[in-house]
Amino acid sequence: MDVRILKSSFAVVERRAEHAVKYFYSHLFWHNPGLRELFPSSAEDMERQRDRLFAALTHVVTHLESGTLVPYLRDLGRDHRKFLVGPEHYAAVGTSLIAALAQTSGDAWTPAVEKAWYEAYQVIADTMTAGAADSDEPPWWDAEVVRHLQYGEDIGVLTLAPRTPLAYRPGQYVSVSSARVPTTWRTYSLANAPRPDGTVDLHVSRIDGGRLSTALVRDVLPGEVLRLGAPGGRLTLRREDRPLTLIAAGTGWAPVRALLEELLQHPPDHDVRLFVVARDAAHLYDRPLIDRHAAACRWLGVTYITPAPGQHRNQATDRLATALGNRALWREQDVYLSGPALFVEETSHVLRELGARPDRLFHDAVPVTGSQRPRPLGFGEWFLHRPAPHWHNPSARDPRG
Ligand SMILES: NC(=O)C1=CN([C@@H]2O[C@H](COP(=O)(O)OP(=O)(O)OC[C@H]3O[C@@H](n4cnc5c(N)ncnc54)[C@H](O)[C@@H]3O)[C@@H](O)[C@H]2O)C=CC1
């Protein structure tokens, strides 16, 4: 691949990212109307889809010389099987991608640039199709809802029984889809360590206007089948011989609960401090269980944090910062963090200021949801808040399948 040409020509396209991805999808659906049904129907989900495409493309271009690119593409190909993508679709996508790049580049699109992109796309498509063909994992897992609990208006805990065994490590997440909201996939953490009966729990916080989260919290019934993608994510215990702090906010408690279950099965030699942050006491929905564990385990200390009366829910994050500041020896700790994207961002910053080592601070790259931050629209915003592709990065898997 001609890395120099690919990078310099992509820099031109990047400035008009929004235009390029819109053109790409218009071109793709105009020339291949049959492909439309593989993609989300709602405008909002199509926007997410466009962000993802550009994030993946950016990831490829920025990792052209990295040894991680081939595994990334192979895993991407393997994971795209759940979207019913077959080898025949790669040619159509390639044609529309080249058309979009050419149209967006204007005068910068020269025969040399075109040749470089044709060759690069061929390598990308071949690597993805080979990754899909070589995988011995199923394209997805059908899982029956065997229990549905609802806490208040907006939190649902679903227990699922996958029909084929789903191997994962505590702390990992899967993407989830329901026939109630076709072609929409969202990631949810698995909230338990693997169980003998193979069931898994999902904790879902309903987002206003979130069609899948609303269906999962309020509508889905036992007996229904959900579809799960392959487990991914690096929020898995390193089991170093160091004191440990676990910090969870909202349903970010789900993966931390799975990590705690792993620790309960193999108790650590050092202390574990757990901070559970919630928007109010009613949202500390697993508190009775946590209290039982804290009473039974000498190594476990728990601090619950909610906002002061009358304060906004995010004030709990300020209170957490104060509580973290009252503790010492952050340099010695491994810290695992989970919760809303901006919570993770803010709390990581506080921890680093307190002396925690960045390489011992573990969290997923969580996509910003709902009203937390508007999606970037223009070049300037793309540049400042370039969407992180990591959440969709199947190479971030641990263990690698
Ligand atoms: N691996 C991970 O990191 C996981 C992340 N999540 C994410 O956790 C979130 C859970 O949502 P809910 O339960 O509705 O949480 P929530 O909206 O009830 O928030 C819980 C607490 O997080 C803090 N927080 C929320 N937004 C904040 C902001 N913008 N700035 C500073 N602090 C903020 C506040 O202290 C709040 O009380 C979802 O966004 C989900 O994507 C969920 C599971 C796993």
Total of helices = 12
For the terminal residues, how far apart are their CA atoms?
Answer: 27 Å
What is the architecture of the largest domain at the second tier of CATH? Orthogonal Bundle
The total of beta strands comes to 11
Task: Please trace the helix and strand order, writing H or E for each element.
Answer: HHHHHHEEEEEHEEHEHEHEHEH
- Extract low-pLDDT stretches: 371-383, 386-401
Oligomeric state of the chains in view: single chain
Q: Please estimate the helix content.
A: 40-55%
Q: What proportion of the residues form beta strands (DSSP E)?
A: 15-25%
What global shape is seen?
Answer: globular
**Any idea of the CATH class of the largest domain?**
Mainly Alpha
Summing up helix and strand content along with how strands pair, one would put the structural category as: alpha/beta
Structure characterization notes:
- With 401 residues, the protein is an alpha/beta fold.
- It folds into three domains: 3-134, Globins (Globin-like, Orthogonal Bundle), CATH 1.10.490.10; 141-228, Elongation Factor Tu (Ef-tu), domain 3 (Beta Barrel); 244-363, 3-Layer(aba) Sandwich (Rossmann fold).
- It has helices at 3-14, 17-31, 43-62, 69-79, 87-105, 111-134, 211-219, 253-265, 287-296, 315-325, 341-353, 379-384, and strands at 141-151, 155-162, 173-178, 186-189, 200-205, 225-228, 244-249, 272-277, 300-305, 334-338, 361-362.
- The strands form two sheets. It has a six-stranded antiparallel β-sheet. Strands 9-8-7-10-11 form a five-stranded parallel β-sheet, sandwiched between helices.
- Helix 9 links the parallel strand 8 and strand 9.
- Helix 2 (17-31) packs across helix 5 (87-105) and helix 10 runs parallel beside helix 11 (341-353).
- The protein is globular, with a radius of gyration of 22 Å.
- Residues 371-383 and 386-401 have low confidence and may be disordered.
- Bound molecules: 1,4-dihydronicotinamide adenine dinucleotide (NAI).
- 1,4-dihydronicotinamide adenine dinucleotide binds at residues 189, 205, 235, 249-252, 254-255, 277-279, 283, 313-314, 316-317, 338-340, 342-344, 346, 363-364, 366, 369, 372.
